[in-house]
Amino acid sequence: MRSPKPHATSRYLAEDGGSAPAVHRGAGLADEVYEAIFARLMALKIPPGARITVDNLVRELEVSQTPIREALGRLEGEGLVVKTHLVGYSAAPQITRARFEELYDLRLLLEPEMAGRAASSMTAPALKALTGAAGVNLRGGGTDERARYPQFARQDAIFHDMILEIGGNGLVRETLAHQHTHFHIFRLMFHALVTEEALDEHEALLAAFAARDVDAARLAMRAHLERSRDRLSPAFDQ
Ligand SMILES: [Zn+2]
User: Where is this region: Disordered (predicted)?
Assistant: First the structure.
């Protein structure tokens, strides 16, 4: 039912490095439709748990069913959409507070250690790829925040996954990839601050990687995750 991996896995380091690993590269119709539905899910225009009707999307997006079904299948693989027998598609339910806390516990146990290992084995091409992926290119620039936010959510997923890849433990990487952490947590709060602050923290991580400073990388990752958790947890008090 679900594809084994999110679409944003592997091949980072094989790319030409340079700018951010493009997700919109050569966007054809299928990609455009995917992006449109992805943005609606991340901006909660399709709220967690809500039914998703293919016919409605056909009308809204003015395309045929085929690219929509394709996009929904891809989103299902990413954990954002759930397909239920005889019911059809719906947006994945919001994570619970307990699950959210477990998720951050898991990340705090694994990601600082992996960041330290990534720092110790950092190479120039890996650092270049990480710098491209950190999302700092999304900063400011008068870009519409609503357009920028879903992009940042994906960029954050790629950045963290890349650190795990460089960290070198495939099982840790798969375990975290299967949680679809980023898409779930970013749906919790739609706020500019989340992006700006997280970018500062990514820069601190990049500095530690550039210095190949294991302790600094561990600390920077720990601080980033703790702040991220604290930024998002008020969403459960609403
Ligand atoms: Zn991050």
Answer: 1-20
